[in-house]
């Protein structure tokens, strides 16, 4: 067997294992590693189990690759490096640790079931060779194990969770008060490491792969990826009136009323502490109760994100099934033609189809529309919410297990909701949130020429449908909701 290269340096080497934290700024693991007096090198492992999962789509992988390109460039600008690997993570991590003779590997913890199992196995494997795996809280503002009811139980309802969560002091960003550009100490000595290239080779380091080399492709028009883009979005949202009028604007899909940070939060190109700091700073500009409510509403959305993380952390079984027993017994239909029409945006309900076109073309969908299409799939088409959950994960650039699962279970009446039986009327939703049909026409341009009333009615005349090459409604909302309620009661009575 070839001998392991001996790194020649007066300094030890420390590894930071990046996963969902593709940034330099406000990174707990990177900050802690840089305080150790060792040379810091970042690594990223392409996990075949994740890449080959049915939940992984080309748009999401492409966005991630863009984030990694910038992260690697930022490391190199600091005089260090981000190394890439492809393989089973535990085995790869051990191989890296042995090749570089490290004593510590730093990483930021995840809450997903697969990640927790993987990280536990990695900790055991590294301990066996004398290497410490040190984890840090990063995905949320608080450790999910630290927020509990008075009886010590995890929260199952959002409102009391929010009251507890908002009362807790929030951590400050790591690495100073200024985003992106702080120079972590001891990252600029990599050039002094003798045999570094040989150690990289023995560890199995590869060049950052292309999308096609990973076996993916897509036709989506993606948002700009990376740490600098994330910071620019945060600044644009919090330093303007957008956050001040968020409460009203967030529900209007034709307006740019949201932060658009969800893909960046998913891949960690912005630190959650930096996000919170910016929201708090915006309170200095508040001049009315309406503006204060705008900031608080956005903070509540951040809390919803963390609530779903906590729920998945404490109830990992939600990843594979309904929370409510009655919805585990619910009689779903098995109509693949209906599902295909929903996926393609060909249901005959303009607000639903516009939202699905937005998803398919951009890898993102407005949150109000996510609720509309999820309710339509489950309450109108009577199809299993897990079909929609999977499709969203495949198509969404911000596809996140905790948030996606939580949202779908809420919409399907199967999750942790004190009022689970919610049915959205797509016509009512369209009239309320897209009253001029601007959003509908943006994504369904073939319907130009129809009146606003026709576009919002959900009942476009058949001759107009033929003229505009648009389908008539594939189901009748009133009929389908009666069927859903009947099946819901039947499952409840068992």
Textual characterization of the structure:
With 494 residues, the protein is mainly alpha-helical. The protein is built from 23 helices and 5 strands. A 5-stranded parallel β-sheet has the order 3-2-1-4-5. Helix 12 (289-314) packs across helix 18 (401-411) and helix 15 packs across helix 16 (367-380). It is globular. Residues 177-183 have low confidence and may be disordered.
Core attributes:
23 helices, 5-stranded parallel β-sheet, 5 strands, 49% helix, mainly alpha, 6% strand, 494 residues, globular
SSE layout and pairings?
Blueprint: E1 13-18, H1 28-34, E2 39-46, H2 48-51, H3 58-77, E3 82-86, H4 89-100, E4 104-108, H5 113-127, E5 132-136, H6 158-167, H7 196-203, H8 227-238, H9 246-249, H10 262-267, H11 272-282, H12 289-314, H13 325-328, H14 336-344, H15 350-362, H16 367-380, H17 385-395, H18 401-411, H19 426-433, H20 438-443, H21 452-457, H22 462-467, H23 477-493
Parallel strand pairs: 1-2, 1-4, 2-3, 4-5
């Amino acid at each position: 067997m070839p001998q392991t290269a001996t790194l020649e340096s007066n300094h030890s080497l420390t590894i930071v294992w990046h996963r969902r934290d593709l940034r330099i700024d406000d990174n707990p693991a990177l900050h802690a590693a840089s305080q150790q007096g060792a040379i810091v090198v970042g690594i990223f492992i392409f996990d075949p189990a994740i890449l080959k999962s049915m939940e992984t789509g080309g748009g999401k992988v492409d966005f991630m690759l863009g984030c990694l390109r910038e992260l690697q460039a930022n490391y190199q600008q600091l005089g260090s490096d981000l190394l890439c690997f492809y393989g089973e993570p535990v085995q790869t991590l051990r191989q890296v640790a042995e090749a570089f003779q490290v004593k510590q590997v730093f990483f930021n913890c995840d809450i997903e079931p697969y990640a927790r199992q993987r990280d536990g196995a990695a900790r055991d494997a590294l301990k066996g060779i004398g290497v410490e795996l040190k984890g840090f809280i990063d995905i949320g503002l608080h450790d999910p194990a630290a927020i509990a009811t008075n009886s010590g139980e995890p929260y199952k309802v959002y409102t009391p969770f929010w009251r507890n969560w908002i009362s807790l002091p929030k951590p400050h960003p790591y690495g100073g008060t200024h985003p992106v550009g702080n120079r972590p100490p001891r990252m600029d000595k990599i050039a002094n490491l003798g045999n570094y290239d040989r150690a990289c080779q023995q560890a199995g380091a590869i060049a950052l792969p292309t999308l096609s080399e990973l076996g993916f492709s897509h036709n989506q028009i993606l948002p700009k990826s990376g740490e600098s883009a994330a910071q620019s979005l945060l600044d644009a949202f919090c330093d303007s009136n957008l956050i001040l009028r968020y409460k009203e604007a967030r529900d209007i899909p034709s307006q740019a009323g949201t932060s658009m940070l969800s893909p960046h939060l998913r891949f960690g190109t912005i630190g959650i502490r930096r996000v919170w700091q910016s929201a708090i700073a915006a309170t200095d500009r508040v001049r009315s109760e309406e503006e204060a409510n705008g900031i608080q509403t956005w903070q509540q959305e951040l809390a919803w994100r963390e609530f779903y993380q906590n729920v998945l952390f404490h109830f990992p079984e939600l990843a594979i099934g309904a929370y409510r027993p009655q919805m585990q017994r619910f009689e779903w239909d098995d109509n693949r033609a209906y599902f295909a029409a929903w996926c393609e945006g060909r249901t005959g309900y303009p607000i639903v189809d516009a939202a699905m076109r937005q998803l398919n073309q951009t890898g993102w969908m407005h949150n109000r529309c996510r609720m509309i299409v999820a309710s339509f799939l489950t309450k109108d088409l009577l199809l299993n919410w897990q079909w929609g959950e999977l499709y969203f994960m495949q198509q969404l650039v911000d596809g996140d297990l905790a948030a996606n699962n939580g949202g779908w279970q809420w919409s399907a009446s199967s999750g942790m909701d004190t009022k689970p039986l919610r049915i959205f009327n797509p016509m009512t939703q369209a009239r309320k949130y897209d009253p001029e049909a601007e959003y509908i026409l943006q994504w369904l341009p073939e319907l130009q020429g129809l009146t606003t009333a026709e576009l919002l009615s959900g009942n476009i005349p058949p001759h107009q449908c033929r003229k505009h090459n648009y389908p008539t409604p594939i189901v009748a909302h009133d009929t389908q909701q009666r069927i859903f309620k009947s099946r819901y009661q039947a499952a409840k009575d068992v």
